[in-house]
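Message: Just now I want nothing more than another pair of eyes on a protein record. I am handing you a single protein, as its sequence and its fold in token form. As I understand it, each token names a local backbone shape. Take your time, and here it is.
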Amino acid sequence: MQVARINDVDELARLSTAWNRLAGDVPFRRCEWLVPWWRHYGPAISSVQRHVELFTIGVYDSGELVGLAPWFLDRSHARGRVVRFLGSGEVCSDYLTVLASPGREQDVADALADWLSHAAQTDGPDRWDMLSLAGVEKNDPTLSRLVTQLYDARASVYVQPAASTWRIDLPDSWPEYLDRLSKSHRKQIRRLERRVLDTGQVTLRTATDPAEMREAWCYLTTLHQRRMQSMGQCGCFYSPTFSAFHRDATRALFHAGLLRMHWLERAGRAIAAEYHLVGGRTLYVYQGGIDPDLLRDEPGRLATIATLRQALAEGFCGFDFCRGDEGYKAHWRATPQETVDWRIAANRSGARLRQGVWAVRRNALGWVRRRLDVSSPPSDG
């Protein structure tokens, strides 16, 4: 196994075919999502007091890419050299991990742990103080193995529960899905179907070409911002970096067949819009917007009903509401999947000192020190 750091974004983009093969069916892990994130957020994050650089690590076997850690290095005087996932921050990318070929998770984690342990002890450009890995699946096999190996190499490990992701495992038909809902919710949905959807008062439209994509994007951003501003909030698309990233990422994902931009239309007017990512047979509900002047007509609920019905008709087996513990997700019978935030300090005095200063506040912040006991990441046994 050979391990190499990738410092150049163009070199990283050239790995797209092998990278996407490792990413599998999770769009947030793909080149089309993470490379645009770096191109936009790398320059945006950097400042006089903060410097960022690519810290993506490739793991190779006989020249073949079998593992990839899609990371960057966030360096400042106060925090030291902190390694984070590409896609972090306000974009809120879900299901990020260290990518590995199926069956090679342990090999990749072990090779990466060896490389990191050595790099932490050097004075060169690969030195790091902290791995800050947020919102990862609690039982992620590759990351669990990596954390265990770093702990065995005397790294200091802390973990904190994070917001869950929420997924509906779809049945074979819409009537079967309705049977899962509470009696009152089922009654509300059937009323909206009879009164609105089945009478043709509103139509679900899905972008099928670049021109419709631009149209749908305009509906989404406008409706989202209007709704957020009506509640006294800025809205996601207030951030120019967020908006620019998504314009590039959506174009790339649409070209790859991994994006659905929907809108509900009534009398020629968009009343709701939805932004979904496609991963295999799962739809990931990333963002939406509704007309704040039409709340009595329940455009948000109508959009969810319409897109769920379409997902079932097209044979999707998963409808993922992504991260966030909002109450409406359980109302639609989505089930939570636990995630955690890892904070791992290198086995070096300076890194441990920073971890120790931070750890004074850990109890108030909900962090706990992780030891190799029954609640630890899985070990060799």
Summary: Residues 173 and 312 are 6 Å apart (CA to CA). The first strand starts at residue 2 and ends at 6. Confidence is low (pLDDT under 50) at residues 372-381. The first helix runs from residue 9 to 14.
